[in-house]
Amino acid sequence: MFERLQQARRSARERSDLARLIDACRALLGARGESNSVAIADAAVGHYRNLSADSLKAFFTLLAEEFDPDPQSVLELAGRYAQSRAPEDLIALTRAAEPPRQELLRRLIRASGGTAAVLSMRAQLLVRLRGDRRLAAVDADFQHLLSSWFNPGFLELQQVDWDSPARLLEQIIRHEAVHEIDGWGDLRRRLQPDRRCFAFFHPALPGEPLIFVEVALLEAMPAAIGPLLDCDQPPAQDPRRFKVAAFYSISNCQPGLRGVNLGNFLIKQVAQRLQAGFPALRTFCTLSPVPSFADWLAKVERLESDRLKPARLKALDAALQAWRARSHGAGPVEKAGASAKGGATEKAGAAQKTDDAELLRRLCAFYLFHTSAAGLRPSDPVARFHLGNGARLERINADGDLTRKGLKQSHGLMVNYLYDLDEIEANHERFVSEEVNASRAVTGLLH
Amino acid sequence: MFERLQQARRSARERSDLARLIDACRALLGARGESNSVAIADAAVGHYRNLSADSLKAFFTLLAEEFDPDPQSVLELAGRYAQSRAPEDLIALTRAAEPPRQELLRRLIRASGGTAAVLSMRAQLLVRLRGDRRLAAVDADFQHLLSSWFNPGFLELQQVDWDSPARLLEQIIRHEAVHEIDGWGDLRRRLQPDRRCFAFFHPALPGEPLIFVEVALLEAMPAAIGPLLDCDQPPAQDPRRFKVAAFYSISNCQPGLRGVNLGNFLIKQVAQRLQAGFPALRTFCTLSPVPSFADWLAKVERLESDRLKPARLKALDAALQAWRARSHGAGPVEKAGASAKGGATEKAGAAQKTDDAELLRRLCAFYLFHTSAAGLRPSDPVARFHLGNGARLERINADGDLTRKGLKQSHGLMVNYLYDLDEIEANHERFVSEEVNASRAVTGLLH
Amino acid sequence: MFERLQQARRSARERSDLARLIDACRALLGARGESNSVAIADAAVGHYRNLSADSLKAFFTLLAEEFDPDPQSVLELAGRYAQSRAPEDLIALTRAAEPPRQELLRRLIRASGGTAAVLSMRAQLLVRLRGDRRLAAVDADFQHLLSSWFNPGFLELQQVDWDSPARLLEQIIRHEAVHEIDGWGDLRRRLQPDRRCFAFFHPALPGEPLIFVEVALLEAMPAAIGPLLDCDQPPAQDPRRFKVAAFYSISNCQPGLRGVNLGNFLIKQVAQRLQAGFPALRTFCTLSPVPSFADWLAKVERLESDRLKPARLKALDAALQAWRARSHGAGPVEKAGASAKGGATEKAGAAQKTDDAELLRRLCAFYLFHTSAAGLRPSDPVARFHLGNGARLERINADGDLTRKGLKQSHGLMVNYLYDLDEIEANHERFVSEEVNASRAVTGLLH
Amino acid sequence: MFERLQQARRSARERSDLARLIDACRALLGARGESNSVAIADAAVGHYRNLSADSLKAFFTLLAEEFDPDPQSVLELAGRYAQSRAPEDLIALTRAAEPPRQELLRRLIRASGGTAAVLSMRAQLLVRLRGDRRLAAVDADFQHLLSSWFNPGFLELQQVDWDSPARLLEQIIRHEAVHEIDGWGDLRRRLQPDRRCFAFFHPALPGEPLIFVEVALLEAMPAAIGPLLDCDQPPAQDPRRFKVAAFYSISNCQPGLRGVNLGNFLIKQVAQRLQAGFPALRTFCTLSPVPSFADWLAKVERLESDRLKPARLKALDAALQAWRARSHGAGPVEKAGASAKGGATEKAGAAQKTDDAELLRRLCAFYLFHTSAAGLRPSDPVARFHLGNGARLERINADGDLTRKGLKQSHGLMVNYLYDLDEIEANHERFVSEEVNASRAVTGLLH
Fold first, then answer.
1. Do A162 and C163 touch (CB under 8 A)?
2. Catalytic annotation on C288?
3. Contact assessment for residue A90 and residue B67, using Cβ atoms and an 8 Å cutoff
4. Which is deepest, A215, C305, C342, D59, by most CB within 10 Å?
C-alpha cells in the first residue's frame, strides 16, 4: 500500500521533472532564455538528471519532433538564395536550415555541469538510436556540435603517471578496453619510466579523461603484448636506448563522444610530445589486435571454393584449403603450442608451428586487404582506424597475444601499424582511394 | 635600388603566404585534412600571421566566394525534405545548407594557437565589413561559431587582484574602456579589499582576459564615480558593512568577439560569486555613463516644438524650453558649479544648480525612454545593454561624472541600473515587448 | 675469479666513497666550505649514498670522534664567562661548546637532497645506536637539529584524499602502523567523505609525508574499530550530523625523525582544521590501542599477592584473583565469546562475558595508572603520548578490537583519549606532576 | 583630557602586551610549552606585534638577562666532560652551554607567522644593537638560528618575470638597492627576454623575496651600466648570441637576515640555472659599483706623502700626485667629459679624458688591493663580498656609471668580478690567506 503510494509519488515527481525540463528547453529558445540562459540551463540540467528511462525516451522524442527546422520556410529561403545569391539571403537560409535543437544544445551547455549533461544525453541517445529512426537527425546534431566543442585546439594533453590522482587512475583502470588492467599493481607497471600514458582532457570536464593511449618505449618494434605487460620484468632504465614508441592500447572513456575522432589527434600529438622528449626515437608504431579475424576466418572457412573466384582471391583459396586441412588434422591451430614429447616429435612440432603461424599471417593479410564489400578497405575496425589515420600496415605477428581473449579473437595474431609522420597525409589520401598502405613484408603475404 | 629589391622580395613572400594559406584551407576541407588536420591547420595559421593588409582582403574575399554553400543542391535537398520529412533528408539538408567555411573554421581552430588566430581573423574582418557587403555572410559564420565556442560553460571566471601576474594587469590597464586607468597606482586602488575585478578567460587563450568588470563594495548605492576611483581615500576595511555591489566599469578585451554577449553572463556570475562571499550584500547595481546624452540633447534642442507633438512628448517639450532658456541665459549647465561669490549669490547659485540638475535628470529620463524609432527602447547603448540583461533603470544622478569626458558626453549625469536577480527574466521579457523597466523615481521624472 | 675481482673493485670504490665523504666533511668545515659549501655538500651527499654498511659505521665513528668540541678550550671559556659574564665571552663559549658536527650537518643539509640525506643518516645511526655508546652524543646532535628544522612553523598540513597522487597514497598504505591497510579498496574507505586523513610535509621533502593521522567523523564517540574500517558500510553522507572527530590511527613515515615530536602538533592542527570546517563538531577524541596490556597482565598474573601490598594496589589484587580464577576456569577471556549452546547457558554466557569485560576494563585501568616505576605515569607508550599531549583518559572499551592482533595485544580492549582543547595545557601540567588525567568513569574502575 | 586618557589606556594596553609576551615566553620554556607550544607561541607573536618601541627595548633586555645560560653549571659540566669525555657528559654540557633563548626562539617560530615575527624581532634588535652592548649575545643567537633555518637547502630559487604577481614586483621595485627602479616601465625593461631576475624564497614566508639578483644576458662583458638599463634599447632577441651573464644588481629584502650569507648561494645557483638554460654562456661576471672609492680618495688625497712610505704604496704615491695636480688644474675629473670647443681643444680634451680615466683606474686598483688594515683585503664591501665568494677582480671600467650617484661615490668607475665556477674554491682559499685574486689587467695597474 505504502509502496504503491511511494511509487506514485516518484512517478509524479518524474513527470514533473520531464515537464519542467521541456518548459526550460522552450524557455531557453524564447525571450527569457536570451537574458538569463545560464539560470534556465542550470534548471534544465537539474531536471534532466532526475529523469527515468521512460522520461528520457519522451525527452528525445520531443527533441526530434519539436525542434526540427520548418520545411516550408527553408524551401522558400533556399529558393530566394538560389536566385539572389545575396549574403543576407544566405544568412537567413543558414539560420533557418539549422535545426533549432542545435541552438538549444548550445544554450544547455552554458549551465554549470552543462558539458557533462550534454555528453550524458548523447550517451543515452545512442542507446536508443537503433530502436527509433527519428532520433538519427537528433544524433547528427549532437555529433556535429560535440565535434566542434571537443576539437583538439581546446583539449589538453596530459601525461598520466604514478603521481596522478588516484581518482584519475581508477578511471584508467575502469576504461582500459584493449588489455584489461588487473588492479593497481598491473597499472603501476604501465606507468613505469619505460612506459607512458597520455590522455586528452576538456577544460569543462576537469579530472575526466576523454581518451587515453598507452605507450611502451622499446629498443625494437614489439611482436607480442605479453612481455610489455609483464609485471615481473624490470623496467628498462636507460632512456638513450629507447628507439621505438609502441602504442599498445587506446581506449575511449566517454560513450557520448562516439563518432568524434579524438584517437587520430591523440596519437599524433603524443608522437610529437615523445619525439621532443626522446630525440633518439626513430619509430612510432602500434601493437594492435585484430579483433574479428577469427570470426571472419570461421565464416570464410565454410565458403565453397567457387565463391572465391576472383583472380585476386586465388591465393586465399589455397591458404584456406591448407587451413581446412590443418583444422581437421593436427587439431586447432591455437593448440599448436601444446606440449609435444620426444626429440623427433618436438622438431616436427616446431616446424608444424612455424607453418601454422605463416598460414595464419597470410590469412590475416587477406583479411585486412580484401574484406570490404566496396573495395579494398578492411572491415576490421582497428585497421580502418589506423589506416584511416594515415598509418601503414607494417607487420603481422603470430603468437602476439596468447591470452584467452587474444587466441579466441585472432588466433593470437597482433599487428604493427607504423606512423611515419612524414607520410601520413599521402597514405591517408591513398587510403581514401581504396588503397591499403602496407609494407612489402605484408604485401608479400598476399601472393 | 636595394630597397626596391627588398620590397619585391617581401611582396613575393607575402603572395606566397597567401597562396599557401589558400592551399592549406582547401586541403583542410579535402581528404588530407581529415587525416592530419592539425598539422595543416598549424601551417595555415602560420601563413595567416604573415599576411599583409592586401592579402588579408584577398583572403576574406576568397572565404566569401569559394566557401559558400551550393544554392542548387540546397534547393533540391530542401525540396526533398519538405516532401519526405525524413531524418536522413534533414541531415543531408542541414549539411548542405551550412556554409563550408564553418567547417573550415572548425578545422582551423584545431591548430595550436588556432583560437587566437580565428579571433584575430574576425577582428580583421570586422574592420573590412562596412566596405564590402559580401563579407556579411562570412562574418555571420564567424559570430555563429564564436558564440558556440565562447559559451559561458567553457569560460573561467577569475578574480583579478594585486597578486595577479603583471602581464595580466597590464592588459586590464590597456583595455579599460569606461574610466581610464592612469597607471599602476590607479589600478592598485581598484584592486583594494573594497574593490573587486573579475574577468572571463577561455582555456584556449590562457592569460588573455576576454572581458572584465570592476566592482565597488559599498554601504549605499553610489551616485558619483569620483569618490570610487579616488586613490587618496583609504579602502573600507570592514566587509560586514558592504551592502551594495556597484558595477562601475565593464570592458571588452577582444574585438574579435563583437556580438558575442559575454557581459550579461559576466555580471550575473560575478553577482552570484559576490553574494556567496558576502552574504550581507543586498543590492547589485551599476554606476553607468550615458555616453551620447549630450549629443542627443544638442540635436533635439534644435528641433522645432511642433516636431514634439505626440502627447507623450509634451513634458519633454516643456523641459526643452526650460533648457533652451538656461543655455542661453546663465551659461552652459556644465559650468553651473563654477564659483559664485557672495552670500546671496551663493544661495541663488545653489538653487540654480539644483534646478539645472533636476532639468538634466528629466531630459535624460526622456532620452532613455523615448529615443528608439521603433518604440520605447532607448538608443543609448549602455541602457540597451543593461535593460536587455533584465536590469531596471533605478536612478539618474546629476553630477555623477565631473571629468572632462563625463561633462562632455552627458553633462555629468550617471545612471544606476539595478540587477534584482529574482526579477531579471520578467524584466527582460517586458523589455523585449518594448517596455523600459524603471523605478518610480525615474518614471516620476517623465511627467 | 672474476667475481672476486668485482668484489675487490666494489670495495675499493666504497673505500674511496668513504674517504671522499670524509674529505668533503672536513672541507665543509674549512675555508673552502665557506665559499662554496653547496657544491661540496652535494659531493658529500653523493658519496654518502654509495656507502656500504661497514663504511656507514666508519663514518658515524668518525662523526663521534673527530667532530667533538675541544674539552680544554670549553673549560677555559666556561671559566672566563663565569667570571666576566660578558656577552662576548658568552658568545665564544656557546660556539666552543657546540659540537662541530652540528655545523657540519647544517652545511650538509644545504645540498640538493640534503634534507633527505640527513634524515637517512639519522635512520642509519639509530640502528647502530644501541651497539655503540659513543654514538649517543652524535644522535643527540641530529635530534637537536632535526627538531629545529622540522618545527611546525615550517611544516605544511595537507589533506590526503582520493585526489592525492597514487605515489603518496602508496606511502600511506606502506607506513600505516596501527590498523594495517589491506590494499587500495581498503584505503579508499578511509578517504570517503566521512573520513579524513591529514599529513605533515616538509617543503624540502616534497611528496614525502612525515606523519599522518586518520580521522573518522561520527555521531558519537566510537567504542570499537571494526565498524570504522568496514568497507561494506556506506559512508555517512550528512556532514551536519558529524559531532565527533575520532583519531583512530597515527603513523610516522620517517624513522630518522624519532624523538622529534610531530604527533602532538599534528593532532592539534587537525583538530583546529576540522573545527573550522565542521562547526558542529563537539568532541575530539581518539580510538587507541593498548599495545602491551596483555603482556603486562601475563607478567603480573604470576606475581605473588604479597608483592601487591601498597594500599593503592589492593583493588588490583582482588581483580587479579578474579582474573586468575577466570583464566583457569572457563577458559581464557578472549574466548569468552565462543558459542554457548542452549537458552540458559546462553544467558549465563552473556552475563559471564559482561563480567569478563568489566574485569578486563578494571585491570586495564590499573595498568594505565600504576605501572610506571617512578610514579603514576603509565608504561603504555600510547597512553604516555596522548596524556603527555594533555589529553584525558576518557573511556576503556571492551571488545574494541577483535582482530587477532587486538586480542593478542590487549584482550580486545581499546581506549578513548579526549582532546579538550581548552584543558590541554592544564592537563599536561598535571601529567608532568605525575598525575593521570582521567574521567570519572575510568577512575571509578580503580576502586 | 580625553587624549590623556586615551594615551593612558594605550600605554596600559602596551604594558599588558609586554607582560603577556614575557609570560608566554616563560611558559614556552616551561611544562605548558611542551604540550601546547604552538598555541602559546601564537599568543606570544600576537602580543609582540603590539609592542611599542619602549616595550621592544624592555623585551630585548629581558632576552639578554633572563635567558642566558647558568655560568656555574656550565663550568661544572665543562669540568666533568673534560675529565670523563663521556658522551652523556658532552650531551649535558652542550645543552647547558646553549643559551635558553635559542630554545625560546625555536618554540616561537612554531607559531603561525612565527618566521616573520622572528625576522622582525631580529630587524628591531639590530637597530638597538649599537646602543646596548648586552644585546650582542642575543643577536648572536638570532643569527645562529636564522643561518640554520635559512639554509639554501630550504630555499626556493624562483625566476621573477613579467608573469609574476604585481605584489611581488612591487617589492622588487622597493628593495632594489643598487640601481634604483624608476617605476613599472623601468622594471619591465629588466624583465625582458635578455634580462633575468631571480629571488630566493623561504617556504614559511610565501610571496616574500629574501634576496634577488638581476642579470643581463649579453654578447660581451659589459663596461657600463647605462646601456643595460636603457628602456629605449630594444631587447636582444636571439638567445644563441648570449655569451655573458652579467650580474648587475643584488639586493637584500630582509633586514632581519643581516649576516646570513644568501648572496653567495644565490649567485652560484643562478649561474648554474642559467648555464643549464643557455649552454652557450661562457662567462659569469658582475658589473659592480665601488661604493666608497670617492670617499677614500678624498681622504687619502689629504695625506702627506710620507705617510705612504711602504714600498708597495710607492706607485700609489705617484698616482696621487698626478691626481692632486688634475684636481687643482683642469677641474674635477668627473667633469672631464664636459664640452670642450674647437678641434685642437677637442683632441686635447679626449687625450686628457683618457689620462684621467687611466689615473682613476690605477687609484681604484690600489683602493681595492691595499685598504684593509689587517692586510691586503679591500675595505670596499662589494669587493669583499665577491672576492670572499671566490670571484676574481677582472676589470676596472672608467665611465661605467655616469649617474649622479655613480659619479659621487666612485667618480663613475665600475668593476667586473668574474665567477669562474671551477676556480671559486681555490680563489676563496687564497682570499682567506689575504690574497686578492685579480686578473693581470688589474694587477698591471698597480705598478
1. no
2. yes
3. no
4. A215
